[in-house]
Amino acid sequence: MWVAMLLLAGLALLGFGTYEVMVQHRLQREGIRVRGLVVRHHTDGSRIDGGPVYFAVVEFVDARGSRHTFQARSSGVKGFPVGCGVPVRYFPEAPKDARIDLLRRRIAEVAALLAGGTLFTAIGIWMLATGR
């Protein structure tokens, strides 16, 4: 049972990581870059130590003059105080899928998914191979 759960979780994370790589690549090629503004922080869940997890909520205006708001996909607001300007990339046909366009955040979002997926999958395979 545990082996199946580990393998399923690992493969799911690898799938989400792969999807995020494809979205990020497409955003770099086809996305429109604009300046966004951190308008608030959304609190969601809690860390292992019991503290809250914060996500920056960013507002931007698209090329047509419409306002859009999105929540950053990764947590942490260090460096993103309310009122802070951030680079944003979005697809003209889907502005709700906008992302904060900072290299370190793009890498961190993808690396966390792929590393977690690789770890869970490797542990599951190891458990299968050793008969645990």
TrEMBL record:
InterPro entries: DUF3592. This is DUF3592 domain-containing protein. Keywords: Membrane, Transmembrane, Transmembrane helix. It holds the Pfam family DUF3592. Residues 36-101 form the DUF3592 domain. The chain crosses the membrane at residues 6-23, 107-129. The keyword Membrane applies. It comes from the Bacteria.
